[in-house]
Amino acid sequence: MSEPQAPKGTYDLLPDDAEGRDLVVATAAVVFAAYGYRRIVTPEFEDTALFERGVGEATDMVRKEMYTFSDKGGRSLTLRPEGTAPICRAYVEHGMHKLPQPVKLWYYAPMFRYERPQAGRYREHFQLGAEAIGSADPQVDAEIIAMLAQLYEELGIGELRLAVNSMGDQVCRPAYVERLRDFLGGRQAELCPECRERTQLNPLRTFDCKKETCRAVLGEAPQIVDHLCADCRAHFERVTLLLGDIGLDPQVDFRLVRGLDYYTRTTFEFSSAHLGAQSGVGGGGRYDGLIELIGGSPTPGVGFGTGVERISLVMGVRESAKSGPDAYFVCYDERLRARVFTLVQQLRSELLLEVDLDLAGRTPKGQLKQADRSGALRAVLVGLEWLDPGTARVRDLRNGDEDDVALDALADWFAAANDTAEGAP
Ligand code: HAM
Predict the structure, then answer these.
(1) What are the domain boundaries of the chain?
(2) Which CATH superfamily is domain 15-172+228-315 in?
(3) Which residue's alpha carbon is nearest to atom 6 within ligand 1?
């Protein structure tokens, strides 16, 4: 049998990168808490109908990208391709309309899309996202965009471009969609077969096409920002004004229709010039009709999703360099192995220190080498023949400083050393 491999478009996150990932998620948790968002976890799969209705049957996501299967009870289920519809489902199911509005929720979860894998595009990717449900106030749009901008800032990737658009609402959009359909109808010969089909099914989806010829035609298409009703225009102006007030510089991009059918009014996207084709780092928008579409009472909402793989790409391949353990024990006398084992255990349980010891029967020389390789801050040498058996030599592996410490006093020694380190400027 050939060597086993992770499925196409998926990846293993090895420990160094997993630790970097944890840091990104921990940073997000702190930033999101500052804005009053609380974490929610929903299932990895949902009824297929949720996405068909919520995301839209004419979208690429529903038509081509879903991992849909029947379970043994004959139900059609789909691995979550995106986080918004499931959270709206949870909002309705748990009667969250009874809570003070808007309800602010964030998530970190894998998403599954059958897309053509390439750099920054996977079949399983992980998103950090947030949804504010229950308020139509443009301040919520501005706040959630500001929150995402702050996350990027905290992660050291604050230089992203921010594009915004308005998709209108049920008052002004239908008339715009008809205008767009008429325009595209007159340009069919220049469009790809898929866009010709989209012209009938859902003309807005032609903006998702990446083909140069179609993009050129769409460059001349009527723009939705010129066809907004008074309320949508006022909303859009307020959002861009508020963003300007807090120092963000959104660029209006009329092509930003963002692949999913549920958007109304504001859409936005942060992108990086360094990511090639997959330049979108994070994006979202308002979805005032979505909850009603999936069976709840009319409830507005706004949110975003940002792919952590794309964040890592912008941050550089390694998300953070892991430092080694606080101490590595090196045992020079086989008879002291059991003592070393209990000492290590004591430091871990009493002080929560990261402490390592040899578990592979290495010679003392091999253990010392391993201490170096692990990047440990200190080596604790136990059983040196020229020392009292009850004493260990603690060697600082950064500068070579040594201190002889009684085994019984090691925990106190490390507690004191830690206090000094924490108190240091
Ligand atoms: P989305 O634009 O489809 O929006 O995905 C959000 C982010 O997920 C993208 O900006 C990108 O960083 C990342 N992403 C998407 N697909 C892939 C992929 N195949 N591989 C790697 N990363 C990917 C949504 O999913 C909406 N639910 C966002 C939202 C929340 N809108 C309102 N609330």
Answers:
(1) 15-172+228-315, 327-423
(2) Bira Bifunctional Protein; Domain 2 (3.30.930.10)
(3) 305
Give alpha helix (H) positions in 173-331: 173-185, 193-201, 212-219, 230-245, 290-293, 308-315
- Decide if 15-172+228-315 and 327-423 have a common fold: no
Does any ligand 1 atom lie closer than 6 A to the CB of residue 264? no
| Global pTM value | 0.87
Q: Is the peptide bond before 81 cis (omega within 30 degrees of 0)?
A: no
CA 342 / ligand 1 centre spacing (Å)? 48
Q: In the CATH hierarchy, which fold is given to the domain comprising 327-423? A: Rossmann fold (3.40.50)
Structure tokens at 244: 């300007």
- CA 193 / ligand 1 centre spacing (Å): 26
- What is the spatial distance between Cα 378 and Cα 313, in angstroms, rounded to a whole number? 33
Q: SS3 for 161?
A: strand
Q: 326-378, pLDDT tens digit by residue? A: 999 999 999 999 999 999 999 999 999 999 999 999 999 999 999 999 999 99
Q: Does 165 contact ligand 1 (Cβ within 6 A)?
A: no
Nearest alpha carbon, ligand 1 atom 16 = 121
